[in-house]
Amino acid sequence: MINVLFVCLGNICRSPLAEAMFKFKLQESNLEGRIACDSAGTANYHVGDLPDSRTIEVAERHGIPINHRGRQFHREDGDGFDYLLAMDNSNYQNMVSEMGEESSHLYLMRHFDAMEKDTDVPDPYYGSGDGFERVYQILDRSLDEFMAFVKKEHGFS
Ligand code: 4NP
After folding, report:
1. At a CB cut-off of 8 Å and minimum separation 6, what does 22 contact?
2. To test the ligand 1 pocket, which listed residue (47, 68, 87, 123) has its Cβ within 8 A of the most ligand atoms?
3. Which pLDDT tens digit goes with each residue over 52-107?
4. pTM of the prediction?
5. 135, 124 contact by CB (below 8 A)
6. Nearest Cα residue to atom 13 of ligand 1
7. Which residue from 58, 94, 125, 132 has its CB within 8 A of the most atoms of ligand 1, so it is best to mutate?
8. Domain chopping of the chain, boundaries
9. 8 is known as an active-site residue
10. Catalytic residue flag (residue 14)
């Protein structure tokens, strides 16, 4: 099994949405037996919490089931996952600090966004509901590209 971890700050907005969307895409592609995913936050503010109500709303609007409880990113996750996807540059730096070193399997989520590469998935927490739809659109295209990358790396058709 190939294991993927999506990471943001609070683990209630961006990364649980990425996890839910990627699970849905894996099912659509019949890859759920080969690739698994989870999500975590670099902060501990929302450990045990359900995703933000606005995250649940945008997922449901797009027909994506979402079910996650907040958990914090820990050093051991660096070794336990084949791909680590940071939602923004701050998450990326926090992960490097927690792991104690750079990791060859740590990427920015928008490394895989052909429209605007290597920038942040914007934190929608303090904004309006529009921010969540924008995050959805960014994740939708970035996750497709990421899945193509993983399939190519592992020789999946
Ligand atoms: P996330 O958004 O990192 O996408 O889950 C946030 C959630 C909570 C907070 C900040 C960002 N917070 O400050 O509690």
Report:
1. 4, 6, 37, 143, 146, 147
2. 123
3. 999 999 999 999 999 999 999 999 999 999 999 999 999 999 999 999 999 999 99
4. 0.97
5. yes
6. 10
7. 125
8. 2-152
9. yes
10. yes
